UniProtKB/TrEMBL annotation:
One family name in Pfam for this protein: C1_2
Alphabetized SMART domains for the sequence: C1 (SM00109)
Keyword Iron attached: no
Signal peptide annotation: none
SUPFAM superfamilies tied to this protein: Cysteine-rich domain
Protein's name in the database: Phorbol-ester/DAG-type domain-containing protein
Keywords: Metal-binding, Repeat, Zinc
Matches recorded under PANTHER family: C1 DOMAIN FAMILY PROTEIN, PUTATIVE-RELATED, CYSTEINE/HISTIDINE-RICH C1 DOMAIN FAMILY PROTEIN
Length: 668
């Protein structure tokens, strides 16, 4: 037995062959350096303390001058640097837990990955000589292309012939045989050298940064090119016709996406188009989270088909002489890169389901029309959410300040009402469909998979997932996850532009992280905003939904949402409810008759969209409960013993004195 004293262990080590390894009863043990299963020949501690090393790990040099990283040596460390929260191998992208090769510039490798890539650079491929090759065209292991990616080029393993996964590495055969230097048309000053992308340079041709594996680079020029971008396939079949590789010195505009490309282009002579490599396989049909219908990719469009050529995501003009995604039903158009920017916001539709529009069929919530007027309007109806007939009216004064039981806003214009009970619906709320598709909704924890059907529901307390207000009006409830949306929010969610009374232009909804302050309330904007493209005007989601007319006990008249300061006297800039100072630049509610000015939040509070007097049947009380607020003698809450001066639930049964704060019964 060969004896060896080795770095990292206090006892001498003995070399074992396979028979000796099995004879020790230790046929399956892990290497104390790389953590992989040990196979003979290997080293074992003479004191039998359970320390084992692969022969290659035992003989690994303390410092490695790697041909793919010539700037600094790689130093063998027993543990990752203490400043790391997680150490990741720059070759296989897996976590390194102990014994790593580390470089001061931030590169880290497993021992086996550092030595394996060193052998590739030195053309020493003995450990791959007897490894089987898998042809992705015939391999039973292909599993639909879900094998992972090659550690060298980080393209899908199933794209080319690869070494069997039994070798411990994901590697294409061609990537093990790459030339170490390359003279390339896109960079004629210096040869390109195969190396690790330690400086995280973006590829000169596709502009994408590859953090792991190999690239061809020129250090003096700080330039990198991906392996596949340096030597793409000359002909690609992914179109009605073949695309052919065409090297260019000058930039070009891609006909598929309309953006600039560099050096590597693919052309279709039949169609006279030139595209990026990545645009060859653009999905033809996608479902985008910002539009209810499927959208189709096209290479060009005649302008007369569209009323507006603005992309509905960025609101910039789409050049229809180049590629875009469009919806022919709605005259909606997207830039290709806008539509595909966030993987979580679209899904690909197979061409077999191209014509499937089963989800688009609306279901009317008016179940029966009993009478109509001369104009064809339904004057008496049956509605799916109410048990009595409803009659059309426009006489608001006859009913006082009533709220719509659907959206909980004051009734206005035409509305339906019940002659037998205190039930009112705006005509627009009554005509809403029983089922509505919400394209922007993703059920919690699940990837976006297309529009979700929401069903119109009522008679329950809920918190709207968009405006976060509690309500007992109508809601749209997701069929899959149970999320509920109040009737005030869908217009903002489903429309790409909204018109509000407080601004002369239409407001466009911008998605994603957004910096700035709301012009209505002054709060910082975080995710998404309704913005005027022509003015420096921004609204948060809540302010875009503010009701224009409200009723409050502070004034006998209806208060109107007001957008401009009514007068310039500082003494008037106070709220008549809380008596605190009011910022004259922010929106407020105002009564012109009484000159009453109040903060928006003071009027709306937390419970503005709960109908007082309505019945609440949930919970464990034996009788139905009614919503009340500050009733005349302020009884004590049965839960906390304090006076019921806020929203409360009172028993509707005569003789039962049960009353409790809403917040004491339920913590929403």
């Amino acid at each position: 037995m060969e004896e060896l004293k080795n770095y990292g262990h206090q006892h001498p080590l003995l070399m074992l062959n396979e028979e000796q390894l099995l004879g020790n009863g230790n046929g399956v043990v892990d290497c104390s350096r790389c953590g992989e299963k040990v196979s003979a020949p290997c080293f074992s501690c003479v004191e039998c303390c359970g320390f084992y090393l692969h022969k290659t790990c035992a003989q690994a040099p303390l410092e490695l001058n790697h041909p793919f990283h010539r700037h600094h040596p790689l130093v063998l460390l027993q543990n990752p640097p203490s400043s790391y929260t997680r150490c990741v191998c720059a070759f296989c992208d897996e976590t390194c837990e102990k014994f790593i090769y580390h470089c001061s510039c931030g590169l880290d490798f497993h021992i086996k990955c550092a030595l394996f890539t060193f052998n590739i650079a030195e053309r020493n491929l003995k450990e791959l000589e007897h490894v089987a090759l898998e042809d992705p065209s015939f391999s039973s292991k292909n599993d639909g292309g879900n094998l992972g990616k090659c550690f060298a080029c980080w393209e899908p393993l199933a794209m080319y012939t690869y070494f069997s996964l039994d070798c411990g590495f994901n590697l294409h055969k061609k990537c093990a045989e790459l030339p170490l230097k390359l003279n390339h048309l896109c960079h004629r000053k210096h040869p390109l050298v195969l190396q690790f992308n330690s400086e995280l340079l973006s590829c000169k041709t596709c502009l994408v940064t590859q953090e792991r594996g190999f690239v061809y680079g020129c250090s003096p020029c700080e330039l990198a090119i991906h392996i596949d971008c340096a030597s793409p396939l000359p002909v690609i079949e992914d179109h009605q016709h073949s695309f052919t590789l065409f090297w260019r010195q000058n930039p070009f505009i891609c006909d598929a996406c309309g953006t600039e490309g560099h050096h590597v282009a693919f052309t279709c002579g039949t169609c006279s188009i030139m595209v990026h490599k990545k645009c060859i396989s653009l999905p033809r049909i996608i479902q985008q989270a910002c539009h209810v219908h499927r959208v189709f990719h096209t290479f060009f469009f005649h302008k007369e088909y569209f009323e507006s050529l603005n992309c509905i995501l960025c609101y910039e003009v789409v050049d229809t002489e180049h590629g875009s995604y469009f919806c022919a039903d709605c005259n909606v158009i997207f830039h290709v890169n806008c539509a595909l920017e966030e993987k979580a916001c679209y899904c690909i539709v197979s061409q077999e389901n191209e014509d499937d529009k089963s989800l688009d069929i609306p279901v009317n919530s008016i179940t029966k029309v009993l009478e109509t007027n001369d104009a064809g309007e339904a004057t008496v109806i049956e509605h799916c959410e109410h048990k009595h007939y409803l009659m059309l009216s426009d006489k608001i004064s006859e009913h006082g300040d009533k709220c719509c039981d659907g959206c909980l806003l004051l009734i206005s214009a035409k509305f339906y009402h019940c002659l037998r009970c205190d039930f009112f619906l705006h005509k627009s709320c009554a005509e809403l469909p029983k089922k509505k598709l919400f394209p922007k909704h993703s059920c919690y924890g699940k990837p976006f998979s297309g529009p979700k059907p929401f069903i119109l529901t009522s008679d329950c307390m809920f918190k709207c997932v968009l405006c976060r207000y509690l309500s007992n009006g109508f809601s749209y409830e997701c069929n899959e996850c149970g999320d509920q949306i109040c009737l005030r929010c869908p217009d903002l969610v489903l429309q790409d532009a909204v018109k509000i009374s407080g601004h002369k232009h239409r407001l466009l909804f911008y998605y994603g992280n957004y910096e700035g302050q709301c012009s209505s309330c002054g709060r910082d904007l975080s995710y998404g905003a309704s913005r005027c493209k022509d003015c420096n005007f921004h609204l948060c989601h809540l302010c875009a939904l503010r009701p224009t007319r409200v009723r409050h006990k502070c004034d006998q008249h209806i208060l109107a949402l007001t957008y401009d300061k009514v007068n310039d006297y500082a003494k008037y800039h106070y709220c008549d409810i809380c008596e605190k100072e009011r910022d004259p630049k922010h929106w407020f509610y105002y009564c012109e008759t009484c000159d009453t000015s109040v903060h928006v939040d003071c009027v709306l509070g937390k419970y503005s969209f709960i109908k007082l007097g309505s019945t609440y049947n949930e919970g464990n009380h034996e009788h139905p409960l009614t919503f009340v607020k500050k009733i005349h003698y302020y009884p004590e809450c049965v839960k906390c013993g304090k006076r019921c001066e806020d929203l409360s639930l009172k028993c509707a049964e005569l003789g039962c004195n049960y009353i409790a704060h809403w917040k004491c019964r339920y913590r929403w």
